[in-house]
Amino acid sequence: MIKTLKLLISSKNPNHNWNVASGFSSFSTKTLLSSSDNLFKRILPAGDPKVSIVPILDQWVQEGRPLNQSELKSAVKLLRNCKRYTHALQLAEWMKDSSNLSPADIAIRLDLISRVRGLREAEKYFNDVSDTSKTYKVYGSLLNCYASYKLVDKAEEIMQIMRQSGCNMELSYNIMLNLYSKLRKCEKLEKLVQEMEKDGLSCGKSTYYILLNASAADSDIEAMEKLFKKMEMDPVVNVNWHAYVIAAKGYSKAGLRDKASDMLKKAKNLIRRSDTGPAYHFLLSMYASLGNKDEVNEIWHLYKKRGLRRNMGYFYMINSLIRLDDINGAEKIFQEWEAINTSYDFRILNTLINAYTKKGLLREAEALVNKAVECEKKVPASTWDHLSTGYYKDNQMEKAAYAMKNAVFSCKGTSWTLNCITLKACLEYMKVKGDVEREKIVRLLAEQGIILENVTRLHETGSCEFSIFDELEKNDEEIDSLLLGSKSEVMTDNNHSNEMYGLNNS
């Protein structure tokens, strides 16, 4: 039986999402959290991925503490589920008994290396693995790495090797179907489905959802409805709220709003007590896209009635009200969020700032940032970037340049991509004004791999996109969990599988 535990991992930098944990099995819960002092509990508070946990591990050994290989492996999986990939890899490589790794352990390590050090290092690690250890899990992990990088040719090459080796193919088919679906390679997707049917592989839950999402994304209503009926008739598949939300997305995209509303109503009725925040998040988003404010408020009432008070719930509710052009309602929800006891999440503040700047309410946006500074919050690059863009669009270039400077100073070591159009305009303004800090800004940008010539080229081609939803990670977690042995099907607040269910809001 799967249990879910919410871990709030403290961090001095609250704008990053490594402070939200994922679900894990009851076995891991008991072995890693039951005793008053264990190694995992020492690792847990060290949330910043830039700070190594190796000194903590070495200190444990110096104290003569016992090392349990089973618990260490469980801790690696748990850190990975927590999205703490760097620390998970550090722990995996610190473990002394590397010769006793199972194929599942190797698969997890391969995945972590790809995430932390890149694909080339992952390939080197795979090549060093003995042939006897290269089971379908290890090959499947490499296949998943290629798929995550959207490298179709390499993924197809590994897929062919797995076919010839007689590997368990159901999961690899799902990985390839998901890749083709995301890249809109309809012909290859259909060919692979035919191959599955020829090999006698029946559709599982994940397969159905991938195919359903593909037909919904292409607005192929006939194919979507045919597949949905097949799912409902399949005694093995439990059609839950996810499927109805996907169908609602397909109907909405095709302009069939009444049918979309019917699907959402069914989805709402299927939400169980055991379902977590994402069920409500997607319903909020979908009802907002349909312009149904009454249902948005009803879903929010149900969410709070469940006792849920999570950052991502407030994020989606505020965004939903903004999409409904209810800025006053969004402000009230923001104030409610500020008043509750939760970790400060700048994505929520950024959502409101983005709405203010689009409406020209720059004083309100500025007031939010000033309040965060006064409360001694470390304002991230994303927030300064949003504010700078608002000033730029309002032709307040002095303030835009000031905010952009702060964005550049705060950007190092983060994954945030600055709005290149605003950046270009601010650099030009600083040049005209003879700003002595301009050269320092250019050097900092160069250190981060941002060359002024490239910024100019992006500006000229207009190839830079800007969206608040760029801050949300997009992960195919269901495939990850099946491949790498995570027992939990629960999606985290920050990393629900938006692409899998076709519900990106950008």
From TrEMBL:
Domain of life: Eukaryota
PPR repeat ranges per the UniProt record: 169-203
Alphabetic keyword roster: Repeat
Repeat found in the keyword field: yes
One MF annotation (Gene Ontology) recorded for this entry: mRNA binding
Pfam families linked: PPR, PPR_2
InterPro entries documented for this protein: PPR_rpt, TPR-like_helical_dom_sf
UniProt similarity note: Belongs to the PPR family. P subfamily.
Identification of the protein by name: Pentatricopeptide repeat-containing protein
Annotated organism of origin: Cinchona calisaya
Lineage of source species: Eukaryota, Viridiplantae, Streptophyta, Embryophyta, Tracheophyta
